[in-house]
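Structure ticket #2291
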Amino acid sequence: MLQNKVLRIFIFACLMILIVFNLASCVGNDGNFYIESGSEVSLKKTASLSTITQAGEVVNYTYVITYLAAKPDLQKNAVPVSEMNISISDSPLDSPISCPKLVLANGESVTCTAKYTVTSADIVGGGVTDRAIVTGTFTSTDTQEGCAPFAKKVQTIHTATAGASATVPVGIPSQSSP
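Resolution: structure written out below.
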């Protein structure tokens, strides 16, 4: 009778160990979330002047920002990202960058503008060089890998960045002929 009781306890303990290890392998997965790991934001920057010659000239900058969402890996149950919130910074500028919209749909572009007035320090320094940075933020709903009852959807915030520089050198003032 004692042997039967010991055998039952042994079998019960073995079953419990198997269940615990099975659940642990289910829940304790590799922690990977299948995200839109290729979504990107791009930035193209242009200046209205190719050279500057004196303080007081105004350089008009144009920024073209584009959002391209990655194609989801359907085998990993990724949910496509639909929109990206953007913010852009640049310096030196006379005022903040003007953008008609700050939320872009997949494949959409926006053109933003800003102005900078050339200073005498820019002329002495050889020109104006600045770097713009755009940051896109988007949220994806991802499936965390796990056994069927333990798989779950997770909201994850992601960012993508891009930068672009523009240099406007000091040029030789044009001479007018008499």
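Closing remark: Residues 20-37, 74-79 have pLDDT under 50 and may be disordered.
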